[in-house]
Amino acid sequence: MKYPFITIIVLALVIVSCIDEIKLNHDVLEPKLTVNTFITPGEVIVVNLYQNIPLNNELSTKSVKNAKVVLYENGIEKEVLEPLIYQSYGYYNEETQTYEADSIFKYRSNETQAVAGNTYKITVECKGYETVSAETTLPHVVQISGFDSITTQKNRYGQNYSEYNYKLRFTDPANETNYYRLIVEQNYQRKSFIVLGTDTIRYINNNNLFPDYVNLYSTDPLLSNENKDANTYVFGELENRYNIFSDEMINGKPYEIDFIADLLSNSSEELDTASGEYMKVKIKLQSLNHDMYYYLKSIDAQKYSDYMMFTEPVPIYSNIENGFGVFCGYTSSSVEITYGEYPKEGIKYYDWEDIERIFNEYREQ
Fold first, then answer.
1. Which of 83, 112, 220, 312 is the most buried (most CB within 10 A)?
2. What pLDDT was estimated at residue 310?
3. CA separation for the pair 304, 131 (Å, rounded)
4. Cβ contact 331:140 at 8 Å
5. pLDDT tens per residue, range 161-175
6. Cα–Cα distance, 92 to 108 (Å, whole number)
7. How many CB atoms lie within 10 A of CB 207?
8. Is residue 312 a contact partner of residue 301, using CB atoms and an 8 Å limit?
9. Which of 231, 225, 228 is nearest to 245 (CA)?
10. How confident is the model at residue 188 (pLDDT cuts 50, 70, 90)?
């Protein structure tokens, strides 16, 4: 009986011996500008600007106002970005230039849209902070060259469900380093009804405007963890939550990725396609630049290292000079598949404007 007791004492001594005092340096306590910006071709450039929150501060977030954000493209100054007020239902220009609202934290280009292959730089000046700058280059698009989908019926805990299997093919450009991210989006429309007096109007609800991101499952070596340490055998492998990978194993070669998408995971029922329900699924192969790849990878690594016995803390990747955050970009190639028939003859499809019109017409009767 004494051996388990001795083991406990030894483990306690090991844990205590690993505890070290952390002395906070000046940079941890001083406020710095934090930039969080992802750019992609065909869209304006929006810079999210905050102040980092020191460990001795009670605030959870703090936006930055009255900043001057200058945008450069391939070394040439393009424009000073316009400050915005952001609300949950849209963007609004700040006309008074007083910046009294705490919600101002975005700065947007009016004339410049990002272009693949170009290099972009921003400088940010704001009273009370060091001037920060960052530079990043957008990668070129890597096209999806082939795509297959297979839906199989499964049973789990006595419930039937559909399993959505996919094969995606592309060719990695040779003689260059490339980084990728695999994304699946779903947008499904369900049947609904409106009761007006004694009448019941049945329709397909077309109000789900924003797609949901879907979890992926794959045994492909590109999507699995490349690095193993002592934690791997105790706590499991590092999770690749962003489905990112490099071309280290496939440089310059055609490749096919097999994966399963967890579609309809938030729904309790399968699609009733006979009644007009349908789902659109978009598969995206994103080409990430160096900055975005290592930023996403560091987030996963940091979450994994938290409270791990054999892992050193992992800092979040940043390419912001004199500040924090990331200024990075990506390009996308995509394919779309529709489950069900849309539009289907004889089926009513209503959005919010249609529903509002129907109620107004009913009230006017």
1. 83
2. 54
3. 33
4. yes
5. 899 999 999 999 999
6. 11
7. 14
8. no
9. 225
10. very high
Amino acid found at 142: V
Give yes or no for a cis peptide into 343 (omega within 30° of 0). yes
Which among 107, 79, 83 is positioned nearest to 94, based on CA atoms?
Answer: 83
Take residue 167 and report the two structure tokens written for it.
């094969």
The Cα–Cα gap between 185 and 263 comes to 9
Task: Grade residue 293 by pLDDT with cuts at 50, 70 and 90.
Answer: very high
How far is the C-alpha of 102 from the C-alpha of 60, rounded, in Å? Answer: 13
Specify the amino acid at residue 303.
K
Between CA 260 and CA 216 the distance in angstroms is: 6
AA identity, residue 57 = N
Picking from 279, 269, 263, the residue whose alpha carbon sits closest to that of residue 204 is: 279
CB contact at 8 A, 341 and 189? no
Instruction: Please state, in angstroms and rounded to a whole number, the distance separating the CA atoms of residues 186 and 146.
Output: 20
**Beta-strand relationship, 349-350 and 199-205:** parallel
Q: Which residues, other chains included, contact 231 with Cβ-Cβ below 8 Å and sequence gap of 6+?
A: 304, 308, 309, 310, 311
Distances (CA, A) of 307 to 35, 235, 302, 310, 311: 27, 11, 10, 9, 8
How far is residue 232's CA from residue 241's CA, in Å, rounded to a whole number? 16
CA quadruple 209, 213, 214, 215: dihedral, nearest 10: -170
Q: Of 340, 343, 215, give the one whose Cα is nearest residue 270.
A: 340
The predicted-structure confidence for 226-266, as pLDDT tens digits, reads as follows: 544 444 434 445 679 999 999 999 999 999 999 999 999 87
CA–CA gap between residue 132 and residue 332 (Å, rounded): 29
Q: Which amino acid is present at 223?
A: L
